[in-house]
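To assess whether the prediction recovers the assembly geometry, we first specified each molecular entity separately, as shown.
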Amino acid sequence: MTRTSRLRLPLGLSLGLSLGLGLLILVLGLASLAAGKVWIPVAELLSPADAPRWFIVAELRLPRALLAILVGAGLGLSGAVLQGYLRNPLADPGVLGVSACAALGAVLSIWFGVAYGAAWVLPACAMAGAIGGMGLLYALAARARGITTFILAGVILNALAGALTSLAISLAPNPFATAEIITWLMGALTDRSLQDVAMVTPFVLAGGALLLTTGRALDALMLGELTARSLGIDLTRVRWRVLLGVGLIVGATTAVTGMIGFVGLVVPHLVRPLAGNRPSALLVPSALAGAALVLAADTVVRILPGGTEVKLGIAMAVLGAPFFLGLLLKMRREIL
Amino acid sequence: MSMLSCRDVVMTAGGRRLLGPLSATFKAGAVTAVLGPNGAGKSTWLAALAGVARPASGQVILGDADMAGLDPLVRARRLGFMVQSRDIAWGVSVETLVGLGRIPHHRYVTLDDTTDAAMVAAALERCDLEALRQRDVLTLSGGERARVLLARVLAGGPDWVLADEPLAGLDPAYQLEIVRLLRGLADEGRGVVVTLHDLTLAGRFADRVMLLKDGRLVAEGPPDDVLTPGMLGDVYGVGVEVLTASDGARVVMPTRRTPRE
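The predicted structure of the complete assembly is given in tokenized form:
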């Protein structure tokens, strides 16, 4: 029996970790509802019946907290899956240019004016952009063996999507469109409504479900594609699941919150010391830790002193870029 | 016990023929060594036999089933494949890595059950890895890593074990260790197919030898019949001397390079 329990230990560990992270999300969620320019005591949150400031909570902070959870969970999971699938600890939807492609899709829909037609148009364009970006990434790095090739493909994709986005801004039909695009690009969770939450949720859930089915394949891939195939893994199906799963999540979340980078890069690295390096054991904890990270970051940018709030996307980049540099330095030998 | 065979298998890459047409039958309960110069098509053939690369034409048959029509998970349970590369992407424990061999035994999710635990424990014991159970695989030496990867294959409990260059880059002690383990698998009735470069070791532990050149099977049979100076000289383009060791085993020694046509 001792042998059985030893083998089961990683699963138990991962369950305990997940429960702990769930609790953390609950606490951070309450903090996110309570904190801001107007502080609302937690006791008031729990008995909302006739609270005078309930409007702030329900209309402004609740959608924001829910979005933070969805976006963080989606990006954290996407990062963990991409790192496992590509066997690359630097993989992340932002670094690889998938987020930039989603943003380009969304910007084009604003630019052409079609986004004002119906609420679903912009998210649909963003998802199309993200899925197209994943496809381009696969094509660019089809024969990639090393860690660097994929990252370089991501650099190319980022540069291309960024340039086209800038082009769209500079050729914007009117100053309002320009302002709208730029504000949205910076990435923020402010002034979003429950309608926005309702729009993102099904796509994040669908994408998340697709990605969660890849755990076994990601484990098998740690020994390379040939071994994975010899273990009965259908790599074509895995490729499609990763493409669609990441595409849906990154497209839908980018459509509502703009570009929020580095979550997918940082989170799996934070989780690994606790959950171990096995890719399948990282998926659920990475989703939960991603949610906690974005909730925390969004609460912090809200209570920082100053007239205007720091945009969440900018705050995450300020935190994430040094982290990326640190990883690069740590991996210097493997990359060169 | 099942049989592994191939019929008129042709492998191509980018329109170029790499191998075949090739027909051969492998026996269970025996070690078959596939030999031949670099680029002869050994790895390509092994990948086709393992069902991880699809032939352009021809059939690979496992037991009484055509490999192309076999459920990949069923195939993976019956046939284990040890690839040449010993790259491991993430630093997991030895035990976790060996446990990957259990993946084909679950269709949807991998929850380690008692059978899994028992098979992993048996594989660890067999490959003498119990002391290393909790070690990070990335900290192991090349020889330890080779043993871990073989244990991974054994944990799946396959009838057939195919290993591509399992001895490459190992020191003599580790080579003999892997050879002993593979020999043991064949002795208990499993089929073992390995590609090798060491002609002497092939002669010592293989029951049958298949000699490949330019994607074609040029000789097949017991080592004593195939590993002759004439045959090896022709296939490898070297002069060969076959000596006899003190225990009566044959030592194949390349002496000089002869110009290839």
